[in-house]
Amino acid sequence: MSTTTIANSDVELNEEGFFVHPEQWTEDMVPELARREGIDELTDAHWQVIRFMRSEYLAKGMGPTVRILGKTSGVSIKELYQLFSKGPAKTAAKIAGIPKPRGCI
Amino acid sequence: MSDAIKKVSIIISKGSLEGIYPGLIMANGARAEGIEANLFFTFFGLDAIHKARNEHIKLATVGNPGLHFATMAGGLPGVSTVMTYYMNHKMEKLDIPPIPEFIEMIADTGAGLYGCKASVDLFGLEKNDFIDQVQDIITVGEFYEKAAGGQIIFT
Questions:
Q1: A21 annotated active-site
Q2: What dihedral do alpha carbons B55, B59, B63, B67 form, nearest 10°?
Q3: Which CATH architecture has domain A2-95?
Q4: Dihedrals φ, ψ of B112, to 5°?
């Protein structure tokens, strides 16, 4: 666990870089968090996925899997992997300030 | 993290439900972690990518001690069908997709899907017999070329 400054606020991240306290996250941290994941330019589709992850987490207490994302976020699985090449659910969860989705599918 | 796995090539050699799913789950899971993945289907594993057969993959109820019931019972007509139905139902509840959908999804993640040439020739099949997501029918030598620099997993 370590404290890092993102968009002028101190946040606590775990060893893998996920938010320990999702409530510390704000939308203006997104560009910097995305850059840390190698995404320099955020498109509308990126935002759509990030906001979807966040709202699913707030509603259900956990982030969706890639399959659910592909079915319900409005972005196809093919496109998800183009947007987040290091793994869509994992990367988008990091940027959306929510815990790593756990699931084998 | 310099020793993290960056690439896997997974061989699926069996045509039963329990022979196909583990390789698919590993390939899909690899892509979800940002790991490059190839799937190579050989021998009866080819059924998983066969257009007419991949919707009818069955659980092996004979010669499968893990099921914990008598081999003779497993061989009765209809038992494999019923057990397959039961297993599919359980997996659906856990959000595990049916094999055809799962393979399509894995192709969409950017994983490579390949058939084994020796097996395709052995069974008298051709590229047209397989789903469109199959990129190519390749030799074992070509498989090793594609697998270079990564881990190989045989299932």
A1: no
A2: 180
A3: Orthogonal Bundle (1.10)
A4: -90, 135
Which run of H or of E encompasses B104?
Answer: helix B99-108
Q: Mean pLDDT in runs of 10 for chain A (105 residues)?
A: 86 92 94 94 95 94 90 92 93 94 82
Domain of residue B28, CATH code: 3.40.1260.10
Is residue B2, in this structure, part of any structural domain at all?
Answer: no
To the nearest whole angstrom, how far is the Cα of A92 from the nearest Cα of chain B? 11
Taking only residues 5 to 34 of chain A, the set having a beta carbon closer than 8 angstroms to any beta carbon of chain B reads none
Predicted model pTM: 0.91
Cβ pairs bridging A and B (under 8 Å) = 43
Q: Locate the domains of chain A by residue range.
A: 2-95
- When divided into structural domains, chain B yields a total of 1
> Is the residue at B70 inside a domain?
no
